[in-house]
Amino acid sequence: MTEDVRNIVLGLIAAGISASLGWLARTYLWKRRLRRKQTFFGLPDNSESLLVVNRDAGGPELTVKRHDVFALLELSALIKDCGAHAQVVAHDTAQQGFGERTEFCVGGPASNRRMAAHMVSLLPGIRVNTDPEPGPDRGAFQIGSERYRLEPGRTEYVVLARLTAGESREARPVFLFCGQLPITNQAATRYLARHHERLARKHGNNAFVLLLKVVNSGAYGPDVVELVADVTRAAQQPLPASTSARTSHRAK
Q: Which of 61, 125, 133, 158 is buried most deeply by CB count within 10 Å?
């Protein structure tokens, strides 16, 4: 074997080793990223999850509003990426506890009984005005001493929460997307899909409750979302009986 041939062979071997090491490193990083994502969502390989949606008025069939369908699509993509499976159930048929399967609950308490139950038991510090009569406080959120009013098409709010039952590490989380309008539910699921890595780094596997503001949805749809505040502590403490409607929060 001549010197030139030996150099070519050694170069090919070195290139092969380098490519193999690069592939192994990329595979390791991809798997570690996937495991972190699965842990955050409580979705190990081949696990089952629930997508709980409100049943639109007008009949016994499961009819979901357009923006809530888009929200389900966002969540379905996340679940598929984790190698898990999803079952879509109507809010009034999901008569089971939580913690055994990861749950994604979409819709406000006025149209989603499951959400209403979660709000009472898990988020006693948040009150949603479900009065069907028109008025400035219709759909408003009361969180502690602050009130967040709905201005359709301009300023709309949504609560995004990751909660767990008890302290058990085996308990699967419940994700709540409680918006003032269906488009805000979609905005919250999109926000989670885009920022779940940052949220996992900040909160780990702990519970969190975020208040998001959807800005000018009439022009931008569900894409322009701002984080108003982390309201975890206020949301988990019952509202005092003396809390009134005097305080309001409006977008400027």
A: 158
- pTM for this entry: 0.82
Which whole-number Å values give the CA distances from 171 to 105, 161, 228, in the listed order?
A: 16, 16, 29
H helix runs in the chain, sequence order? 3-41, 66-81, 113-122, 182-203, 217-220, 232-235
Q: Are 106 and 177 in contact (CB under 8 A)?
A: yes
Longest dimension (CA), the chain: 92
Nearest to 102 by CA among 137, 138, 123, 78: 78
